Amino acid sequence: MPLPAMPPRAADFLDRLPETRWPRLWLLALCLALWLPGFATLPPGDRDESRFAQASRQMVESGDYVRIRFGEEERNKKPAGIHWAQAASVHVAETLGLGDRGQIWPYRLPSFLGALAAVLATFHWGRALVGRRAAFTAAAMLAACTVLVVETHIAKTDAALLGTVAVAMGLLGRAYLAPGSFTTWQAAGFWAVLGLSILLKGPIGPLVALLAVITLVAADRAGAWLKTLRAAWGIPLMLAVAAPWFIAIGIATEGRFFADAVGGDMLNKVNSGEEAHWGPPGYYLLTFALSAFPAGFLVLRALPTAWRDRLNPGTRFLLAWIAPSWLMFEAVATKLPHYTLPVFPALMLLGAAWAMDPLRRPAPRWLAWLGAGLLSVVAVALGVAAGVLPWLADHRIDPLSLLVLPFAALLLWAVFACLKDGAPGRAALAAAFLAVPIYAGVLGGLLPRLEAPWIGPRIAQALAAQGLTPPGGEGFGIVGYHEPSLVFATGTRTALLRDGAAAADYLAAAPGRIVAIGDRDLARFQAELQRLNLAPRPIGEVAGYNYTRGRRLVLRLYRLS
User: Fold this and answer.
1) How confident is the model at residue 86, as a pLDDT?
2) Looking at per-residue confidence, does 493 or 177 come out higher?
3) Alpha helices (H) along 395-513
4) What torsion do the CA atoms of 442, 448, 453, 456 make, to the nearest 10 degrees?
5) Residues 352, 135: contact at Cβ < 8 Å?
6) Taking residues 442-448, what's their average pLDDT?
């Protein structure tokens, strides 16, 4: 049975879209459609998001914007830049009456804005590298990438870091391609943005730029263009942006921040798979089809042509951006799909440049089939997983989640119809736009409607029914479930208790307290109650699934009469 062709009006719209008079407005509309579903309704996740958000909330509550704490524990892993951005978002939301510090969405706003900056920077500076039409297509492809869509919904550093890297590399590309027109203000912007990236995630941003510079100088055997960067005063400017906080935190923690952040967090990631996040060599190639969905198939098709075209200055710069940083991330023992995000703008620009080139060489047949097969597998897997997940989590069928698979099939039909017509650029744009209902169904419809994974918010609701409400959390202790999302949901003063005996002692220490006991600690709790001659009354029960540990649990709430 022949594949139905795309309707002529839809095909004409997609062909004309890269030439629109308002490209940034179209990209903004696409980003809003892709990223807003679930942005405010998806509960805080474990573990990194809730750790970051809770530490930022404690900054707001305490007024201490130097030290980073989670509860009473120092969190000496990442610089304070993202916490400042999140705290500022909370202050703005509360001032305007749009939200409060107990809601998760204000903490996600810096991730949203960083991702938006990356998409717009990919278009703005990509025009000089690959042309206007290809730059628009690449920006749309980047906006729809699974890894970036997910990161916009997570209150942590990576989407914000991507924004700084995309801007800095865009300016670096301009200095490489047109050193004669690279101004002092542009040089200052380059170094200042790298300074901001240091405040967000340490040396990652400068490393990406440095590796690209070294690669270009080695490949060209020339580096006269580097003078336009004004490194003599640019490097001090970059350090001046970040240095004040590093000096302050060094004094405040008596050097513990640097010992923990460098000697602990960073070296552990390099030498071993921290927190079981190990991956084999080639991990990022193996996961690329999912992290770059739905546009990864186009990038794979473009790679052979990009290598043949490596003498072209724009392509040369993009390859220098990608290759050394990709190898660096592969060399690090700790691997997570979002670690390679800093090179995604360059990957999308290479893919779009090939797709929009009327003289492009066809991809090798095996590579074209591989890309099509991976796209099909990921799309079908997302649709099937969305339909099955409500049954696995809550033992129910969600009619809305069943719609994801038909939308995935629609995306596949549109992509293959465009490829059959010899229009890979149109296929990329069709994939980006038709990814909207898929992400809306998963992030905006399916996940927020689940019950089992969101234990912390449900415990907070049970406490509110008893008159104990966040943000304080004082008077509530728990054993058997200590995930950061619980602390964010129930309050900073939530007591994370050692075992069932400690829970009984906590309950007896003051009137009106409430404790939650996990099923594994219930026997010890009851034995200690008997010894203390206490008879608390059960006031509720929360059953759920701890997805960070992969097990179901039941938490029983007790209160003394």
Assistant:
1) 98
2) 177
3) 404-420, 424-439, 447-449, 455-465, 484-490, 500-509
4) 150
5) yes
6) 95
Task: Give CA 8 to chain center in angstroms.
Answer: 37
Q: Confirm if 24 and 120 have CB atoms less than 8 A apart.
A: yes
Instruction: Please give the C-alpha separations between residue 449 and each of 131, 379, 453, 458, 484, in angstroms, as whole numbers.
Output: 43, 22, 10, 12, 21
What are the CA-CA distances from residue 405 to residues 293, 397, 437 (Å)? 15, 14, 10
Please give the C-alpha separations between residue 509 and each of 505, 513, 516, in angstroms, as whole numbers: 6, 8, 15
Tokens found for residue 206: 């400068």
User: In percent, how much of the chain has pLDDT > 90?
Assistant: 84
User: Look-up: residue for tokens 């990161």?
Assistant: 151
Give the model's confidence band at 470: pLDDT under 50 very low, under 70 low, under 90 confident, else very high: low
AA identity, residue 204: I
What is the amino acid identity at position 58?
Q
Pairing of strands 476-479, 514-518: parallel
In b/e form, how buried is each residue of 190-206, taking b as 16+ CB within 10 angstroms?
Answer: bbbbbbbbbbbbbebbb
- d(CA 259, CA 265) in angstroms, rounded, equals 9
The tally of CA atoms less than 13 A away on the side-chain side of residue 230 is 18
Predicted pLDDT at 420:
92
Q: What is the DSSP letter of 266?
A: I
Q: What is the amino acid identity at position 206?
A: P
8 A C-beta contact, residue 487 and residue 71: yes
Separation CA 150–CA 155 (nearest Å):
10
Region 393-402: what's the mean pLDDT? 91
**Quick one: average pLDDT of 475-491?**
94
Q: Report the chain's mean pLDDT, rounded to a whole number.
A: 93
How far, in Å, CA of 311 to CA of 439, rounded?
38
